[in-house]
């Protein structure tokens, strides 16, 4: 937070995909700490090369999710730290430092927001739902996502595009938005969010297979089972679903 709304060094990793020196500093702080505490764990972190461990567990880290927001002074970004066992997340946190909100989950033990139990939306009719999505950096798929959103728009209350996929998943997990979907996310974007939503009673599907999502599912559909079923019916046959 000491770096937020100050002059940060911004570099491009790809078209519209930025990294700042604050991302790198945050990552170094996190990785130094977890490596000292658990030196045998592997590491999968956005701004570093993967590190193989001797343990079955891997730290999965996004030092700042929503970096574009952070760089532009928009107060909507977070930090993700999770632990996976193979392709399954066993515990994870998404921390929003602006609002001092800690979304946390452990497999089989539920999900919490600042220590209080949370659950996905209990809305049962998609006509009453607010949906969230983000566009990512796959511009071909983003075009088809916008076409899908236009087709679905008359049946929902509204959309929210907030520019931080990990917070989008956390907001779906705690019921602030009713359903979240995306087509192009990395493991560090979704690591905690998959578990948060599942432990909060949600269905978390891989967009391509419609099976339960794993750490390496690039596209997700997340909500309560009823809204997921209705969303799938509404979007059946869409180009975005078939890509």
TrEMBL record:
<dbReference type="GO" id="GO:0007165">
    <property type="term" value="P:signal transduction"/>
</dbReference>
<dbReference type="GO" id="GO:0046854">
    <property type="term" value="P:phosphatidylinositol phosphate biosynthetic process"/>
</dbReference>
<feature type="binding site">
    <location>
        <position position="46"/>
    </location>
    <ligand>
        <name>Mg(2+)</name>
    </ligand>
</feature>
<protein>
    <recommendedName>
        <fullName>Inositol-1-monophosphatase</fullName>
        <ecNumber>3.1.3.25</ecNumber>
    </recommendedName>
</protein>
<feature type="binding site">
    <location>
        <position position="64"/>
    </location>
    <ligand>
        <name>Mg(2+)</name>
    </ligand>
</feature>
<keyword id="KW-0378">Hydrolase</keyword>
<dbReference type="InterPro" id="IPR020550">
    <property type="entry name" value="Inositol_monophosphatase_CS"/>
</dbReference>
<dbReference type="InterPro" id="IPR033942">
    <property type="entry name" value="IMPase"/>
</dbReference>
<dbReference type="GO" id="GO:0046872">
    <property type="term" value="F:metal ion binding"/>
</dbReference>
<feature type="binding site">
    <location>
        <position position="65"/>
    </location>
    <ligand>
        <name>Mg(2+)</name>
    </ligand>
</feature>
<feature type="binding site">
    <location>
        <position position="62"/>
    </location>
    <ligand>
        <name>Mg(2+)</name>
    </ligand>
</feature>
<dbReference type="Pfam" id="PF00459">
    <property type="entry name" value="Inositol_P"/>
</dbReference>
<keyword id="KW-0460">Magnesium</keyword>
<dbReference type="GO" id="GO:0008934">
    <property type="term" value="F:inositol monophosphate 1-phosphatase activity"/>
</dbReference>
<comment type="pathway">
    <text>Polyol metabolism; myo-inositol biosynthesis; myo-inositol from D-glucose 6-phosphate: step 2/2.</text>
</comment>
<dbReference type="GO" id="GO:0006020">
    <property type="term" value="P:inositol metabolic process"/>
</dbReference>
<dbReference type="InterPro" id="IPR000760">
    <property type="entry name" value="Inositol_monophosphatase-like"/>
</dbReference>
<feature type="binding site">
    <location>
        <position position="189"/>
    </location>
    <ligand>
        <name>Mg(2+)</name>
    </ligand>
</feature>
<keyword id="KW-0479">Metal-binding</keyword>
<comment type="similarity">
    <text>Belongs to the inositol monophosphatase superfamily.</text>
</comment>
């Amino acid at each position: 937070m000491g770096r937020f709304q100050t002059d940060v060094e911004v570099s491009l990793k790809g078209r519209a995909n930025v990294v700042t020196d604050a991302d790198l500093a945050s990552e170094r702080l996190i990785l130094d700490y977890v490596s000292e505490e658990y030196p045998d764990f592997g590491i999968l972190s956005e701004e570093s090369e993967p590190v193989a461990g001797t343990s079955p567990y891997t730290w999965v880290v996004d030092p700042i999710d929503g970096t574009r927001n952070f760089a532009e002074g928009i107060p909507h970004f977070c930090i993700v730290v999770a632990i996976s066992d193979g392709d399954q997340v066993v515990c994870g946190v998404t921390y929003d430092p602006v609002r001092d909100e800690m979304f946390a989950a452990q497999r089989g033990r539920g999900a919490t927001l600042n220590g209080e139990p949370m659950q996905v939306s209990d809305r049962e009719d998609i006509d009453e739902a607010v949906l969230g999505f983000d566009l990512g950096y796959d511009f071909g798929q983003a075009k088809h996502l916008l076409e899908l959103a236009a087709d679905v728009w008359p049946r929902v209350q509204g959309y929210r595009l907030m520019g931080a996929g990990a917070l989008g998943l956390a907001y779906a997990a705690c019921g602030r938005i009713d359903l979240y979907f995306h087509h192009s996310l990395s493991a560090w974007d979704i690591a905690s969010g998959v578990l948060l939503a599942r432990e909060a009673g949600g269905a978390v599907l891989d967009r391509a297979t419609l099976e339960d999502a794993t750490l390496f599912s690039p596209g997700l559909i997340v909500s309560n089972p009823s809204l997921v079923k209705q969303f799938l019916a509404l979007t059946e046959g869409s180009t975005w679903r078939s890509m």
